[in-house]
Amino acid sequence: MRLSRRGRGAVAGLGMLAVASGVVALTPAERIAGLMSSSSALAAETTAPPAAAMPSFADLVERLKPTVVSVYMDAEIGNVAELPGRGRQGQEFQNPYGPGSPFEFFFRQFGNGQGMPAQKVRAQGSGFFISADGYVLTNNHVVAHAKSVQIKTTEGKTLEAKVVGTDPKTDLAVLKVTASGTFPFVKFAQQTPRVGDWVLAMGNPFGLGGTVTAGIVSASGRDIGSGPYDDYLQIDAPVNKGNSGGPTFNTQGEVIGVNTAIYSPSGGSIGIAFDIPADTAKRVAEELKTKGSVSRGWIGVMVQPVTADLADSLGLKEAKGALIDDVQPGGPAAKAGLKSGDLVLAAGDEEIKDARELARKIAGVAPGQQLRLSVKRDGADETITVTTAAFPNEAKVAGQDRREPGSNPADSKLGLYLAPASDVEGAGAQGVVIVNVDPSGIAADKGLQQGDVILDAGGKAVSTPKDVSAAVSEARKAGKHTILMRVRGAQAMRYVALPIA
After folding, report:
1. Which residue among 70, 126, 218, 244 is the active-site one?
2. Is 473 part of the annotated catalytic residue set?
3. Which terminus has fewer CB within 10 Å in the chain: N or C?
């Protein structure tokens, strides 16, 4: 055997060590055999153990798939823009929030559909049983404007269903199977998942039916700009069009979230999906089952986050809390003594990290209940107790038929249904409350929402729907193409220019 120079040196060294130690010298062949044996032993000692096999979810999937359903709905609409997130073939749009928005391709957003004639639309999504008697949870945008709804089980059985209740603010809806029977149903997770936990997403992507994908929890507490209560889980399990309303499970088979939105410049999954957390989904589902709607607390304040500069000026070591920048006259906060400039640091026994967290905390308190706020005012700590009221658009006018022509004297083209703020509990004494918005109208295109309060129209204060109608008429007579309105929303005061030509 021919050895390299390095090999010969190694063998020679071993021979000299053996002679010097008085050990019987080995023959060249024996020396080579010994060297090979030592090398083999060293290799055996340093070789990594076999890699653990990837987890198989087969048993878990077999148990959970019967709880997940495909949801199909039929609607006849005058404009596809009325149907959030859907196209003619039941596929969900990837429409923009606005040019340049990082979230412009969320598939749950409205289609533009401008100029399209009335048509029948069939849309599809996903859902899952939440009780043995046939209640199904899905996304609101899956069944919005539905004339009829059907669900299809993994066994291929098609069942008629009705919409029991919807909550646009969290994009959740509850359906009820009309047929009697006992159905397999899910359990919601009690614990918040940790970032890095394995998850399974199930649903009806592209109408393919029972499909399972796996991934991990990528992040939590995501704000994607869809509303004041954003608190999404982010997962990387592939989620696509049609997955809306489907569940995401942990490895114990519990629902940790409801698949609701994706970020996708391409229109398909790129590993960034957003789930409504289980605690929110469970709470909303229970209210929708029992009442058909969700009651949220409201105190009549506008808040802003605390920046590093604000924290320094307020004498805080870190930027935290929610700074009140406006208090609605006559609202619960004003009655309790809250003022602009107050810094809310805690609600009840929970620390408030930012403005969004305070909004969610207040909304989670039923109207008529007390909420204790820890406030810093002029450098001093105070405790103020506020009695929450119903959110303006959930007040007593909610029971009226807002779509009758007489309830909208302003202008049918604007698509606004109005009521005096004084008639709406918690809305204050000034302005006109928007109690409903036609999704195909001009107002919806400009971002006006149910619950917004119009304070001025055409530079004049308004207190009745007729005031708004008069302002629109005057603007038209003056040859104007738009009318400027000052609007108080849930998050801020703003001016909105509505086309009237």
Report:
1. 244
2. no
3. N
